[in-house]
Amino acid sequence: xxxxxxxxxxxxxxxxxxxxxLLVLVISQTLKNGYKEGVKVAFAPIISDIPIIAVCLLxxxxxxxxxxxxxxxxxxxxxxxxxxxxxxFKTRGLTADxxxxxxxxxxxxxxxxxxxxxxxxxxxxxxxxxxIPPYVENAWSPLWFIIGFYTLLVGSKIALAYASGxxxxxxxxxxxxxIMRSLGAVLLIFSFYFIIHGLEYMI
Length: 203
What we know:
By secondary structure, the chain is mostly helical. It has one domain (2-202). The chain contains nine helices and no strands. Helix 2 (21-33) packs across helix 8.
């Protein structure tokens, strides 16, 4: 269970700090409308990801008896994590001078996340394969991963909203870049683990 929690925290940190449409919306709302508006958008994944997780886990449960398919998905997840690690290493920061026309509402943050393919890809290739095996043994085990993941995902976006509200140049500073590089190294380890685990499924 502690392993699931740590994994959720690590991946949640990546998801919270990584550049993407939702982070852009969080920062732009903060800069244009104040810290509270950015915080509202940061909570969007908690609402939008419920149907996403349900659909992805249903799909994975339907193929759970096919080891070859699960192995392929795990390997794809490993390569996807490797790509995410690469993205972390090449991060040069974000400009806070964002021009993004979005209404001031949590609803728009939810819609943006629902239309973003990244959460679907994450839960099919990474999140799902992590929580399904523990679920078979203990139905409550996946909660540790989910709690760790969303606490850090939302928390880190709130922290970025606060930091960008205090300093418009924070996302281009070395601190942010160092955070992303460190997360990239951890994701690379997870990448190898997923690939090895996928090969074990296929043998």
